[in-house]
Amino acid sequence: MPLFNKKFESKPIPARVSRCNIGFPVVNEDIEDFRNISLSLGNKKLRFADGIWMHSAHKADVDDMLRLNKKFRALEEENNMCNLKIEVMLDLLAEHATELNDLKPKEK
Questions:
Q1: Which DSSP symbol is given to 39?
Q2: End-to-end CA, the chain
Q3: What is the mean pLDDT of residues 87-98?
Q4: Hey, which of 12, 20, 41, 56 would disulfide with 61, CB 3.0 to 4.6 Å?
Q5: What is the DSSP code (8-state) at residue 6?
Q6: Band of residue 19 on the pLDDT scale cut at 50, 70, 90
Q7: Which residues touch 40 (CB under 8 Å, ≥6 apart)?
Q8: Three-class SS string for 43-80?
Q9: pLDDT digits over 31-79, tens only?
Q10: Which InterPro entries does the record match to this protein (predicted)?
């Protein structure tokens, strides 16, 4: 008689069959339906776009606002890069000026 018999072995797990949605229709949601969410509160109309609610009367206004926001972000990034380049150039200029001052003969 073996010391450990098959009593301690795990049983095989049966394969999972497809979901049992018998009698229910398949859900077909279009992602575009969720991109154009609008909310009307009295005489004000809000549209959800790019993660924020915008007050707008037409969808074209929202598209223009999104385009301008993207352009604004790109210009801010370019401005930050230019400021960084200016800082690096000023550091190089200061380093070069100190090297030139060290090379000049000291007059007394």
A1: E
A2: 106
A3: 96
A4: 56
A5: G
A6: low
A7: 46
A8: CEEEEEECCEEEECCCHHHHHHHHHHHHHHHHHHHHHH
A9: 666 667 788 888 888 887 777 787 776 667 777 888 888 899 999 999 9
A10: Chibby_fam
Residue 54 near residue 62 (C-beta atoms within 8 A): yes
AA letter at 3: L
Block residue for tokens 């037409």: 58
Angle at 15 between CA 13 and CA 20, to 5 degrees: 125
What letters, b where the CB count within 10 A reaches 16 and e where it falls short, cover 34-51? eeeeeeeeeeeebbebee
Query: How many C-beta atoms lie closer than 10 Å to residue 78's C-beta?
Result: 10
Task: Determine the Cα–Cα distance for residues 58 and 83; give it in Å rounded to an integer.
Answer: 38
Distance CA 8, CA 2 (A): 12
Contact, 66 vs 59, CB < 8 A? no
Which residues neighbour 59 within 8 Å (Cβ) at sequence distance 6 or greater?
36, 47
